[in-house]
Prior knowledge:
By secondary structure, the chain is α/β, with parallel strands linked by helices. The chain has two domains: 2-173, HUPs (Rossmann fold); 186-278, Pantoate-beta-alanine ligase, C-terminal domain (Pantoate--beta-alanine Ligase, Chain: A,domain 2). The protein is built from ten helices and nine strands. It has a six-stranded parallel sheet with strand order 1-4-3-2-5-6, with helices on both faces. The protein has a three-stranded antiparallel sheet with strand order 7-8-9. Helix 1 (7-19) crosses helix 6, helix 6 crosses helix 7 (151-163) and helix 9 runs antiparallel to helix 10. Bound molecules: adenosine monophosphate. Residues 29-30, 36-37, 39-40, 146-147, 149-150, 173, 175-176, 183-186 line the site of adenosine monophosphate.
Amino acid sequence: MKTLSTPDEARQFTRALRANGKRVGLVPTMGALHAGHLSLVDQSQRHCDATIATIFVNPTQFAATEDLSCYPRTLEQDYEMLAAAGVAAVFVPQNEAMYPPGFSTYVEPPEVARTLEGNCRPEHFRGVTTVVMKLFHAVPADCAFFGKKDYQQWKVIQAMSRDLDVGIDVIACEIIREPDGLALSSRNRYLDPSERHRALRLSAALKDVEQAIAAGERDAATLQDRMRQTLVSGDGVHQIDYAVIVNADTLVPLANLDRPAVALIAARVGQTRLIDNKELCVDLGSPSSR
Ligand code: AMP
């Protein structure tokens, strides 16, 4: 596995692969890798002839009050995992390689970035769109793989890629969970055993909504109330940033589940902010669901 440190090096490596007729997949990450990241690598390996992973903890997507300085870094272990998964190269730039002195150009995020995470973390998506566009230029791949774990991020990158004619297929991969339902996240390392237990409320609340829908409930406000109750019940989650059911594509609030929808949660367990979501399956064809 080759290690690449500068955008120029990464671009040359990618171009050489493509000149040899290889279909290249890009898997952007911030490291501290887990099975969720590896599922993206696995999808890339299936779709493409060569995979390039990136590890970069992007400072421009963290607010001053957030966890940039203590974000988990496990580089040696990450290399081992990526090499074992058979990736062709890993692009691991230093901050100065991505943001040299004088850097001042940012990508304005699309409409879908303005809600939810965009409200809670005002500068976040500008950092994400900027760094992802830079990674797309450094690694001009055929496809790029993103997890639905960061559902809104996927929608933001999908819209940016469409609006700015990026020419890289954005492929979304399903959420990987622990056997008890907790969505894998690098930030789960911050949780102590009691917080880890309380964190299960997020996936439980999403499952609850799914069950209510299966039982025939279609009113979004009722479903949201139920989701919040499950989140806070018992020794639950105390600070909910949002727990909503919205249009799966635009993330605009819905009154009824009469179109594809997604339930999205952001909540704090102790000091750790966690997000989770579930796409909601409603049989739009059956008269009882209208
Ligand atoms: P991160 O390192 O947290 O920036 O994540 C890098 C990529 O991995 C993003 O596209 C995430 O959505 C994806 N990812 C993180 N956790 C999971 C998970 N549990 N299941 C699937 N994809 C994930």
